[in-house]
Write a structure and sequence with these properties.
Elements lengths: L1 H23 L10 E5 L2 E4 L8 H15 L2 H6 L7 H13 L2 E3 L2 E10 L5 E10 L4 E8 L8 H16 L4 E7 L3 H9 L2 E7 L4 E6 L2
Parallel strand pairs: 6-7
Antiparallel strand pairs: 1-2, 2-4, 3-4, 4-5, 5-6, 7-9, 8-9
Helix pairs in contact: 5-6
The chain binds coenzyme A (COA).
Length: 208
């Protein structure tokens, strides 16, 4: 009696691992490659691992922190207060590539110029199984704004999706008041899909 109960439990564990385990994992829509895509004079790539090249990692880290703690980025990009924990998680994600959580696959990339490979900003890209959609966002280093970096980075994200997932939807959510970001999306070929005036948010989607 006891033996059959244990066997039943074992069978339940095996079934859970075999069927529910893989179902809980988001589809691998974002590749683990260190360079996601290049073009328009820019490169979207993961951060240099600290263990591999500490001085380069330090230079990149400084630019990442300058970008992500800039008041405009804090207001427009982050949800809520920017804590050390959030920044640490971001850097880990930037170094190690796409992560999986609750059927969500999410990755952060440095935006660098192909000539000098200097950090000009950041982008994030996520895929959510439940909504079957890519979502993306970006922030440009405060000293580099107004040079079309945001527009070209958004074009690169669009190029990646069109090249590798041509049938998938891709959206970006911006505040209504963020004119620069709305111009970036319009320049890169995204159109206004919905407005949530009660939340002062707009959803832009790729115009195909
Ligand atoms: C939004 C942001 C990414 C724009 O990056 P950028 O590289 O400066 O953008 P671009 O040079 O490609 O310019 C895009 C457009 O915005 C306009 N623009 C730039 N700054 C602006 C400002 N302060 N007010 C109004 N328009 C502005 C540019 O004139 C350009 O419009 P145009 O094509 O009609 O000439 C950058 O300002 C930023 O990082 N902001 C903080 C983070 C953020 O808002 N992220 C987006 C939320 S997901």
């Amino acid at each position: 009696m006891n033996l059959s109960l244990s066997m039943l439990k074992l069978a339940a564990v095996v079934l859970t691992i075999a069927f529910i385990g893989p179902l809980a994992r988001a589809a691998d829509k974002i590749p683990p490659d260190r360079v996601l895509i290049e073009g328009h004079g820019l490169r979207l790539r993961l951060m240099t691992p600290e263990k591999q090249n500490e001085p380069k990692f330090d230079r990149e880290l400084t630019r990442v922190l300058e970008t992500m703690t800039d008041p405009e980025t804090v207001e427009q990009f982050w949800q809520g207060e920017v804590t050390d924990e959030k920044l640490e998680a971001l850097v880990t994600n930037l170094e190690s590539g796409p992560m999986q959580k609750d059927q969500l696959q999410r990755a952060f990339y440095l935006v660098t110029d192909t000539l000098r490979d200097q950090v000009l900003g950041l982008v994030f890209l996520s895929w959510r199984d439940r909504e079957q959609k890519f979502n993306f966002g970006y922030a440009v280093h405060p000293n580099e704004r107004g040079r079309r970096i945001g527009t070209k980075a958004a074009q690169l994200i669009k190029d990646f999706v069109e090249r590798h997932h041509p049938n998938e939807d891709i959206v970006a959510i911006v505040r209504e008041s963020n004119i620069a970001s709305r111009n970036v999306l319009a320049n890169a070929g995204f159109g206004l899909r919905r407005s949530f005036s009660d939340k002062s948010l707009c959803v832009y989607a790729l115009v195909r």
